[in-house]
Amino acid sequence: MADTAQIIVDERIKKESFGSRLMQRPELGAIAGVVLVTIFFLFTADSAMFTLSGIMNFMTPAAQLGILAIGAAMLMIGGEFDLSIGSMVAFAGLIFGACVVTFGLPLIIAIPITFVFAALVGALNGAIVLRTGLPSFIVTLAFLFILRGVSLVGLKLATDGSTQLRGVRDAVEGDFLTPLFSGDAFGGLFAWLAEIGLVETFNNGAPKVPGIPVEILWFIALALAATYILLRTPYGNWIFASGGDRNAASNSGVPVRRVKISLFMLTACCAALVAIITVMDAGSTDARRGFMKEFEAIIAAVIGGCLLTGGYGSAIGAFFGAIIFGMVVIGLSYTNFDQDWFQVFLGGMLLIAVLFNNYIRKRVTGER
Amino acid sequence: MAKPIIQMENIEKHFGNIIALAGVSFDVVPGECHCLLGDNGAGKSTFIKTMSGVHKPTKGTITLDGKPMHFDSPRDAMEAGIATVFQDLAMIPLMSVTRNFFMGREPTKGRGPFKRMDIKTANDICVESMRAMGINLRGPDQAVGTLSGGERQTVAIARAVHFGAKVLILDEPTSALGVRQTSNVLATIDRVRKQGVGVVFITHNVRHSMAVGDRFTVLNRGKTLGTAERGRITAEELQDMMAGGQELASLEGSLGGTV
Ligand SMILES: Nc1ncnc2c1ncn2[C@@H]1O[C@H](COP(=O)(O)OP(=O)(O)OP(=O)(O)O)[C@@H](O)[C@H]1O
Ligand SMILES: [Mg+2]
Q: Would the pLDDT of A7 be above 70?
């Protein structure tokens, strides 16, 4: 049994080039997209865009969207959609804001409460989808409105009629968990890098980039963790199976319901994380938070290679999809183009990505 | 005769107003191949699906190793050592052969948060099991969607044989197979039977069932027409029972006795 892994030479296989193997990876399109967009801005944008501070500038919105997109991608691979994540950002923002401002709770309690609420709504979404067999598209569309409305009403209750809840920054000031969710990390390192001249400084000697915004670190960590889970753990295999064919997966012993509900909870928690980070960053929360983010997240996931039909996709792809987003949104302001080209670009990118994914799927499944 | 591993008594299954099974009793003893025969729509697939946890019976009892059993999901049945090749194979075209092979029962290594799929072991077992069935995979990471129908069926069979510790259920496993692969499957049934596994074999091919069957149960319109032991029934008798007796006789003349 020593050489069991060795595959007997088969005269019916043409040698597969590295290129054609690469073509079968779902994230390929997104990586190619990043390269293209980079080239485009290298030619059209002010050179400041690709300095360290320019990169942080577009990576910050990319990270905020990307955290949502990675959750959305995992859910899409599992065969479902969640259109309520944008509203969930507002809802979780309200819960979090109310916890720290209205009730004056410390972060160590406020943050878990926020995640628990988000996870419960996610589980409710999932339970309704699984119990009724309705498409998740329609169920979560209902929650898109429900959560947005609840956030509005809740904000008015919490603030006596305003739709903005202020005072978060003061409330979390000095909490030992604050640096985990807001501000910049590695400040010392960047100060030192500035001293030895590797990072540009302002006239007063402070580094132009004071550190890496924490959301970027969350974004990278989440992308790595999601990729590991998808490709290397049994749970990841179950996600692909549940999205590929629910019946076949269930008949083969995959606990499909558990997988899908947990994915809905995970996506909602991603939204809660974005809510916590952005609310602490802004110092306030409002009902428009996360508006339209569900579509942007799904588009980033699709650009990243996720099939709308489920069972195929990648977290790394969604990672690059979100970066493309950030580059375009911010990058246009470094060019002479009108900012509003952004929407055109978005639609075009989505269309190309869907066509490309369709082609890749046919290659992978050998469909003719 | 040995005590049955699994015993199904008076199983009924209704889908809305359709009575798919109207009281079927059936059992499997260790080391036997019990053939389940019957016309299209007789209820064979529905019946084995109640045995493998896909459907909950509307009425009737399932006894496993002498204890009453309620399967809530196929996973429960699998954990009890029952593996099934479903008629639709339960394969996912976008996933690789190995990932399909181990779907739901992935081998792992490491502990705690570092518990991960043991991909190398999985690939080795998968390639080796497929070779034992007479198919050389181009690569274990090939997507199942690119396999031929028979290759796909073989993956499903190899998977069930690998996991069928007590009972192996095969729902028309040879419908898409070539001559060599079919004889391989029949030889495999014989092999696992000798290891003490109880095999349930559904087929429309009387010759195949006569080749490996120890007992034969014929279903017709959701009811059993009876169970016969090997040697007590001829191929012709089985054939007639499966077809419900009548029409085949009249066809036989015009087809020149080829059926
Ligand atoms: N999920 C279901 N809903 C409604 N009716 C069903 C369902 N599953 C099976 N049936 C009905 O039950 C009957 C038995 O079907 P079953 O698939 O068990 O037949 P079979 O003996 O396996 O036939 P074949 O030889 O064609 O595979 C059929 O009339 C079928 O229409
Ligand atoms: Mg059938």
A: no
Q: What is the pLDDT of residues B158-172, one digit of tens each?
A: 999 999 889 999 999
Residue A9 forms part of a structural domain:
no
Tell me the residue range of the domain where A339 lies.
29-39+48-361
Q: What pTM was computed for the model?
A: 0.91
Distance CA A226, CA A362 (A): 25
Q: Are strands B18-28 and B6-15 parallel, antiparallel or unpaired?
A: antiparallel
In the reported structure, the alpha carbon of residue B205 is separated from the centroid of ligand 1 by a whole-number distance in angstroms of: 19
* B198-202/B33-38 β-pairing: parallel
Which residue, among B114, B134, B137, has the nearest Cα to B126 in the 3D structure? B137
Q: Whose CA is nearest to atom 3 of ligand 1?
A: B15
Domain covering B6-90+167-254 assigned CATH 3.40.50.300 in the classification: yes
Q: Cβ contacts (< 8 Å) between B106 and chain A: which residues? A: 234, 237
- Report CA(B54)–ligand 2 centroid distance (Å): 14
ipTM of the complex: 0.90
**CATH number of residue A143's parent domain:** 1.10.3470
- pLDDT on residue A2: 41
What's the domain count of chain A? 1
Are B14 and B58 contacting, i.e. CB atoms less than 8 angstroms apart? yes
Any CB–CB contact under 8 A between A14 and chain B? no
How many other β-carbons are positioned within 10 Å of the β-carbon of residue B191? Answer: 12
Q: Is residue A93 part of a domain?
A: yes
The ligand 1 atom at the shortest distance from the C-alpha of residue B219 is 21
Domain ranges of chain B: 6-90+167-254
Instruction: Yes or no: say if B127 and B142 are a contact pair by the CB < 8 Å rule.
Output: no
Any domain includes A172? yes
Q: Please provide the DSSP assignment of A227-254 as one string.
A: HHHHHHSHHHHHHHHHHH-HHHHHHTT-
pLDDT digits (tens, 9 = 90+) for B135-165: 888 888 888 988 888 888 899 999 999 998 8
Q: DSSP letters of B69-82?
A: ---SSHHHHHHTTE
Question: A5 contacts in B (CB within 8 Å)?
Answer: 120, 123-124, 127
Structure tokens at A186: 């590695």
Amino acid present at A148: R
Domain assignment present for residue A366? The answer is: no
